[in-house]
Write a sequence for this structure.
């Protein structure tokens, strides 16, 4: 009897990025300004959208790809009500309030690629990816 061994998609499986993403959504995340909040995804992402949900006085949201990045200088900022969508293949993102606490929502399109397929971390400790990450 024949056995079929199906190959799992890897990080460079182009078809995984051509298909529509598997939906992932979370809302009203309480984000502290003292420590980074890591949001881990179950599989590698095709895209990520982050929304700063804070209303009222200014409460900017730092978004980055490592805890060191959002604590240092490697992040981007979303002001109240702003959102950003990027085509990132990551297993997690890091959020932190810039000077005060805030709240955020995240929407992502997931692939079927397991997170252990990412060849490196985004902490900035890898000699290849030091600039602009962590």
């Amino acid at each position: 009897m024949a056995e079929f061994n199906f190959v799992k998609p890897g990080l460079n499986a182009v078809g995984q990025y051509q298909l529509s993403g598997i939906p992932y959504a979370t809302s009203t995340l309480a984000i502290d300004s003292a420590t980074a909040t890591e949001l881990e995804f179950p599989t590698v992402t095709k895209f990520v959208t982050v929304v700063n949900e804070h209303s009222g006085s200014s409460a900017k949201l730092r978004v980055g790809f490592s805890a060191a990045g959002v604590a240092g200088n490697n992040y981007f900022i979303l002001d109240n009500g702003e959102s950003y969508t990027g085509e990132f293949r990551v297993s997690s993102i890091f959020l932190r309030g810039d000077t005060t606490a805030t709240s955020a929502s995240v929407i992502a399109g997931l692939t079927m690629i397991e997170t252990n397929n990412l060849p490196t971390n985004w902490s900035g400790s890898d000699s290849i990816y030091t600039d602009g990450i962590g």
Summary: The mean pLDDT is 88. Strands lie at 22-31, 37-40, 45-52, 61-64, 76-78, 83-86, 92-97, 102-110. The chain has one domain: 14-115. Helices lie at 14-18, 67-71.
